[in-house]
Amino acid sequence: MAVAFNRDKPHCNIGTIGHVDHGKTSLATAITIVSSELSDGAVKVKNYDEIDSAPEEKARGITIQTAHVEFISKKRHYALVDCPGHVDYIKNMITGASQTDGLILVVSGVDGVMPQTREHVLLAKQVGVPSIIVCINKIDQADPELLELIEMEVRELLTKYDFPGDTVPIIRCSALKAINGDSDAKKGILELMDAIDDYIPQPTRV
Q: Which residues form the Tr-type G domain (predicted)?
């Protein structure tokens, strides 16, 4: 029997941004899986189709409207906004991102920094998002040497737009493998959740 959802922990709003198909929605699913295990089932697992739920989203294969997912970490209760990645829906991303206390920038370990990666970081700066943490996703499909170059490129991009690129945590993950039950991949998701706890400041609510 699932335990009750404990919302007594400090609350924080975060979002995912990044290029289309780099794995933002899969990451959101993976986080709910790991959080559900961490909370003895209090957190409901949200599968990909539940997050990416509107008919037009499924038809086009991209996330159009922002979707909200709840999860808890070791320290906090979170509302995660799965922001649209497709270029046509950047205005939706701004609306979603401006409501957040911090963002997870998802970058494919196969493709690296792409045009929307840059656009989303710029927009995050323009709307005043205070903190960004980075997830290099799809590491199971990536060349390890390429991952080092991608990390350097991401840090340079963040620095360019006045985020602390030299010190931003960059966590390597495979959301898909975590969804499929791989224990090492789940550890990567948990490492990301811990980094979010530690790096994104607790907001002061009015």
A: 9-204
Catalytic residue, from 24, 46, 77, 120: name it.
24
Which is more confident, 128 or 161?
A: 161
CATH of domain 11-199: 3.40.50.300
Question: Average pLDDT over the chain, rounded to whole?
Answer: 82
Q: What stretch of H or E contains 82?
A: strand 77-82
Is 31 in contact with 120 (CB distance < 8 Å)?
no
Catalytic residue among 22, 46, 77, 86: 86
Any catalytic annotation for residue 86?
A: yes
As a whole number, mean pLDDT of residues 144-150 equals 94
Contacts of 194 by beta carbon, 8 Å cutoff, 6+ apart: 73, 74
Question: Is this prediction's pTM over 0.70?
Answer: yes
Active site residue 125: no
Torsion, Cα of 125, 99, 83, 148 (10° steps):
40
pLDDT at 56 over 60: no
159 is catalytic: no
pLDDT at 178: 94
- Choosing from 16, 19, 22, 25, which is the catalytic residue? 25
138: annotated active-site residue: no
